[in-house]
Write a structure and sequence with these properties.
183 residues, Heat Shock Protein 90
Length: 183
């Protein structure tokens, strides 16, 4: 698996190699196999650098995971919802990434900025896709959409974080959570 560190160095490493998740800026290829390592690295930093509760760390990790999945699968790989793809989103993303790599298509990256203070964490996840109309997201509680398996990630993220903001084009999300233990 090729992973590129913010310094531009590339190496063949597994997704959980911590050196690729060091610092406050990560440049990650559109490989869903990196998501577990990225989430684990963020949670480890939160445990070491903050007094966040276990519940807060879980929720921050889940919201971060959702942002990465959306950036890779929908943003960089251009996948529609799983119902339209006929597979899980992760499986569809793995397949699409493999097809693009085999065709020699240029890799698109996800840029992650992380700012951790004793009081809060702020994460920005930006993909190289065209974005989406985040103002027009369907209400997942609407009876017409309630049984759909997609579209819940942003709802979960909004419930777990104190602030969720998109840039105008919809290819960048900023997540912020204040810690309950912060003074």
């Amino acid at each position: 698996m090729n992973i590129e560190h913010e310094s531009g160095a590339r190496a063949e490493e597994g997704p959980k190699e911590s050196k690729w998740f060091e610092g406050d800026v990560w440049r990650l290829p559109s490989e869903v196999g990196l998501i577990d390592g990225a989430e684990a690295a963020l949670k480890k930093r939160l445990e070491k650098e903050t007094a966040a509760t276990e519940d807060e760390i879980f929720k921050i990790g889940m919201a971060f995971r959702e942002a990465l999945v959306n950036a890779i699968a929908h943003g960089n790989l251009g996948l529609a919802s799983p119902e339209e793809e006929g597979a899980t989103l992760i499986a569809a993303a793995e397949k699409k990434h493999g097809e693009l790599a085999a065709a020699g298509m240029a890799e698109k990256y996800v840029i992650v900025h992380i700012a951790i203070s004793p009081a809060e964490v702020r994460m920005t996840v930006k993909d190289e896709g065209e974005g989406f109309s985040w103002r027009k997201l369907p209400d997942p509680g609407d009876p017409e959409h309630v049984l759909r398996t997609s579209g819940r990630g942003i709802v979960i993220t909004r419930n777990f974080m104190d602030s969720v903001e998109f840039n105008e084009s919809g290819n960048e999300i900023t997540l912020m959570k204040r810690f309950s233990t912060a003074s």
